[in-house]
User: Fold this.
Amino acid sequence: MVFRLALERGAKGVRYHAVAEEEILFREIATEIGRQLQLPVVSKSQKEAEAHFTWFTRFAEMEAAASAQKTRELLDWKPVQPGLLVDMKHAGYFAS
Assistant:
C-alpha cells in the first residue's frame, strides 16, 4: 500500500520510509531469533562482540532507529500489517 501511495502521491526525489514501528532494539530482534531457533542469547563485551561478529560488529552496535512518521504524514499512510517482531513470531520464517 505505501509503495502505491508513494508512486501516486509522492514527490520526485523524496525518500519514504515504510516501517510500522518507530524503534526496535537489536537486542529484541536477536532475542526473537534465538527463541525461534531455540538458541541462547547472551550479552557480550565490546571485545567479545568484535571477536564473535567480526565485520558485522559495527552493524550490530549501531543505534539506527527507523521512523516512518514523515512518510505517514506526507502520504496519509497508516500501517495495517503486523510489525517486525509479531511477523517474526507468526510468519513461519523459522519453520523447519
Q: What stands out?
A: The chain has a mean pLDDT of 89.
